[in-house]
Specification:
The complex is a heterodimer of chains A (about 110) and B (about 110). Chain A is mainly beta and about 110 residues long. Chain A has a single domain (about 5-105), classed as Immunoglobulins (Immunoglobulin-like), CATH 2.60.40.10. Chain A has strands at about 5, 10-15, 20-25, 30-35, 45-50, 55-60, 60-65, 70-75, 85-90, 95-100, 100-105. In chain B, the strands form two sheets. In chain B, strands 2, 4, 5, 6, 9, 10 and 11 form a seven-stranded mixed sheet that branches. In chain B, strands 1-3-8-7 form a four-stranded antiparallel sheet, with no helix packed on it. Chain B has a single domain, classed as Immunoglobulins (Immunoglobulin-like). Chain B has no helices and eleven strands. In chain B, strand 4 (about 30-35) and strand 5 (about 45-50) form a beta hairpin. Chain B is about 0% helix and about 55% strand. Classes of the chains: A mainly beta (about 110), B mainly beta (about 110). The interface between A and B is medium-sized, with 25 and 21 residues.
Chain lengths: ~110, ~110
């Protein structure tokens, strides 16, 4: 079964708007990671948040973690057309388990 | 220099054939992985090797056999290919104890 499930499956916004993607997971975690995948490419690590952290920032990215609800969110502020990609959350102790991602389309 | 490189990028073959995908990492990592991504983009781990030793072997048909000649290489050999094997296969690496994975650009396998 999937450890992480992203929501929504697809999101389309205008350039300059903020994009929020959510992730739910099932078991206890040490940390949760977000990855980005451009079309036809491999996944690229974006940010990691540890289980004792509630919020983390990196540039235009903001990640929150709610361990009581077993959920995380990724916010991309002031989106750009180049942010168009699939975004995955991943977690797991012995191995990283990914969901099926959120496809983000940023329209110019 | 590409950190994790896998070849070929595209592989088109007939059912029943045997094929291999190669992966190399130049990051000095001690752990390498194979993931399979299906048409719905769901990414599932297949194998993990640490210092050439198999540490994760998920429920994968034994037609799939990974081989790690050294800790910088992890190849995937697939026997008797089936239509359902069509997917994108990703190699990844990490340093054990550090959670971040580095991915290759994927091999698109199409079985006809």
């Amino acid at each position: 079964s999937q450890q992480g499930e992203e929501d929504p499956q697809a999101l389309s916004i205008q350039e300059g708007e903020n994009a929020t993607m959510n992730c739910s997971y099932k078991t206890s975690i040490n940390n949760l990671q977000w990855y980005r995948q451009n079309s036809g490419r491999g996944l690229v690590h974006l940010i990691l948040i540890r289980s004792n952290e509630r919020e983390k920032h990196s540039g235009r990215l903001r990640v929150t973690l709610d361990t009581s609800k077993k959920s995380s969110s990724l916010l991309i502020t002031a989106s750009r057309a180049a942010d168009t990609a699939s975004y995955f959350c991943a977690s797991g102790a012995r191995q990283l388990t990914f969901g099926s991602g959120t496809q983000l389309t940023v329209l110019p | 220099d590409t950190a994790v490189s896998q070849t070929p990028k595209y592989l088109v073959t007939q059912m029943g054939n045997d094929k291999s995908i190669k992966c190399e990492q130049n990051l000095g990592h001690d752990t390498m992985y194979w993931y399979k991504q299906d048409s719905k983009k769901f990414l599932k781990i297949m194998f993990s090797y640490n210092n050439k030793e198999l540490i994760i072997n998920e429920t994968v048909p034994n037609r799939f056999s990974p081989k790690s000649p050294d800790k910088a290489h992890l190849n995937l050999h697939i026997n008797s290919l089936e239509l359902g094997d069509s997917a994108v296969y990703f190699c990844a690496s990490s340093q054990l104890g550090r959670e971040k994975l580095f991915f290759g650009s994927g091999t698109q396998l199409s079985v006809l």
